[in-house]
Sequence to fold (345 residues):
Amino acid sequence: MEGHGSASRLQCRHTSEPDCWLPEYVEWHRTHRGRPDAKYLVWVCYRDDGLGGPDAPSRNVYADCAGLGDRLRGIHYLTRIAYAVKRVLLVWQESPVLLEHFLEPTHIDWRLTPELGIDLAREVAQSARHYVVGVETGNQLREEVLQGTFQQLPDRVVTVSTNWLAEDPVGGPVPDLSQHTPLMGQLARALFRLSSAVEAATDAALASVGVKPGQPFVAAHLRLGGQIGEEFAIERFSLGQPHEVLQLAFQCAAGLVDADKRRLRQAAAAAAVLAPTQAAAALAAVTESESHMPHVLLTDNDELRRRVSAGELPPWVSPELHPVHIRLRRIPGWRIAPARCPEPG
Fold:
């Protein structure tokens, strides 16, 4: 898989820099994953018809692990813990399906694959050492890490279900993570990339609204609540009706487009200095980009999508997608196969 074992883009100049923990962990994870003496820290989300049986969801944070954002931030948080306690981070999501259906690892291979020799039923679904870390349950894991008792655990596999804030300060051996620095994005990209199936579906959705491969575009994601599988609407109409919220998004997008225009013009000017004979072509490319910058709307609001598709809210276009919330344990049209380790690749 692309990116495995290669952390060149994550390297830092001085190992004393506070952000150097991530490339250090990427390399450590690569060399320790699968070793006979390796210890694992596994982020988990169980389902009631999975390997743990009908009572397994009681070991989940919020019983169903909440939404995608909650799950990813919990994995990000646990990566910091794994670095501090010298354990190999893994991810085991049963509900609604394996996370590998949606996301693949890049620099940190978090997949629970057969060559690791981990017994899914005994060590993961029914793990002896398990933590639920959330607002209602507290964070006993953090307390034990700060006390040093967690680091002394003999258990080969420890499981955790959490949606704890990725950047929440811990202290002690756990490195800091600020959402106001590039490290937050670097951590996300070190962990995840779109699966090939999701990437292909994304390309098809963009093509359906006229976006060509490699063509620059602006995207607005307006989650207004009430999508399939969501328990309740999330009440995001405080700024106005859907079309008014879209207008605010357009104002934000205009800033992004202007910034992109400046970047392209600067690149064209630089190209003209280096190759005057190609200046006209470079400037023509900028003009083409400026005049054909698609504005793609992704939303769970059917009314807004319908109006955009009808051409009532230019310059926006919207693919005919109907989002399904990840906490819906049964995805329509999906047949759930018996749980097993994904094959390494």
